[in-house]
Amino acid sequence: MSDVPLRIAVVGGGVAGIGAAHLLQRRHEVTLFEKNDYVGGHTHTIVIDRGADAETAVDTGFIVLNDRTYPLLMHFLAGLQVPIRKSDMSFSYTCKRTGLQYASRNLDTLFAQRRNLLRPSFWRFLIEIGLFNFRTRKRLAAGALRGLSLGEYLRREAVLPSLVDSYLIPMAAAIWSTSDARMMDFPAESFFRFMENHGLLSVSDQPQWYTVEGGSHAYVKAFLKGFAGRVFTDRPVERIRRTHSFAVLTFADGGEEIFDKVVIAAHADEALGLLADPSADETACLSPWTYNRNSVVLHTDPSCLPENPRARASWNYLREKEAPPEAPVILTYHMNRLQGLRTEGDYCVTLNPRRPAERSRIIRELVYHHPMYTAEAVATQRTLPSLNGQRHTFFCGSYFGYGFHEDALRSGVKVAEAFGIHL
């Protein structure tokens, strides 16, 4: 890549775009364009503006990272001098259909329903989790999951239905913010590789989880403070046209700007939609990706948490009595536990609430989109990197990996590395 400073546009101000822009500014003139009124994407911290808890920063999108599978993000935060603190990453399950309820914080919460101490079916459920994890680690190491969807693998292994319905699928749906039914299409090898890397196929091999001190927007503020380039919010790019020599960005208001290179740090479907003339390779790599829409509500209504205090955790999954498998996941994050908030009230972030929180307790309503993982989509990850550098264009986003913050940042760092710049 040329040593002459280039004019580079970064389209998208999530962590992928932030990572790319942060590094590229060392040698080039970088302009960051964001369609929203804030920089950060899924890093979206809401500051409480009223009552006794005023000035409290509550995260609504990106919340946690760990010391094992987020090495780049840990390094990035340290470089920005952004402090982190330990977090509680417990999980709870409540099913209105069967009445089952448990939480993972400790033995007391695991048996939140004391009757489960005397239920052989619950003890079998717990034993099967351990046996299933052991078998699956062996299958994964042997390459026996290749080419199978999660649903196909579970059927082939004749897994205990209660383990699937009351543990594996709820946890997976919570992690990927998707419906139970869609999780069955997830490629099994990718799914269990992720679970193993995060210590979820073991009882004792858990990473330490952290949250950003003062809310995740602290790192966005630190990035912006040290960014030498231009930043435009509320500036949606409508079209990107590539010529032999440069890239032309057209904006929603009809304006245009010319750049030597463009980095598209947007969701895959959005990236494809921005291209005026996508190549066959770009279409093949980007078109298989679809995204799941999740409604998100930040509120102070404790009725969204399990009624039994012992069954409350940081992540609280709820299955309604009449909910079909295709129904959006219902999940409530207890932010006081996750962020260590010391507040008068309980702050919760609920995905896809079936029953609206009390209106007076709603602080903010948001929408986030998450990538859907199918065999066809995951197959493109082998060739996605080959798009970068073609026709003055580079791509990055969480879809290059498992859909999480580390994956997005890594893809942005890889773009910078193509210019000879390293984190």
Describe the structure concisely for a colleague:
By secondary structure, this protein is an alpha/beta fold.
Task: Offer a few descriptive terms.
seven-stranded mixed sheet, five-stranded parallel sheet, 423 residues, alpha/beta, 31% helix, 2 domains, FAD/NAD(P)-binding domain, 22% strand, globular, Polyamine Oxidase, Chain A, domain 2, single chain
CATH second-level architecture of the largest domain: Alpha-Beta Complex
Q: Give the rounded overall mean pLDDT.
A: 96
Distance between the termini: 17 Å
Strand fraction band?
15-25%
State the helicity in percent bands.
25-40%
The order of strands across the largest sheet is: 8-7-16-17-18-15-19
Q: Looking at CATH, which topology of the largest domain would you report? A: Polyamine Oxidase, Chain A, domain 2
Q: Structural class of the secondary elements?
A: alpha/beta
Number of helical segments with 4 or more residues? 14
- Overall tally of domains: 2
Query: Which value, in Å, is the CA radius of gyration?
Result: 22 Å
Low-confidence stretches: none
CATH level 1 name of the largest domain: Alpha Beta
> How would you sum up the global shape?
globular
Largest sheet: 7 strands, mixed
How does this model look, in words?
- By secondary structure, this protein is α/β, with parallel strands linked by helices.
- It has helices spanning about 15-25, 70-80, 105-110, 120-140, 150-155, 160-175, 180-185, 190-195, 215-225, 270-275, 280-285, 335-340, 375-380, 405-420, and strands at about 5-10, 30-35, 45, 55-60, 65, 85, 90-95, 100-105, 210, 230, 235-240, 245-250, 255-260, 260-265, 290-300, 315-320, 330-335, 350, 360-370, 395.
- It has a 7-stranded mixed β-sheet. The chain has a 5-stranded parallel β-sheet with strand order 10-2-1-14-20, covered by helices on one side.
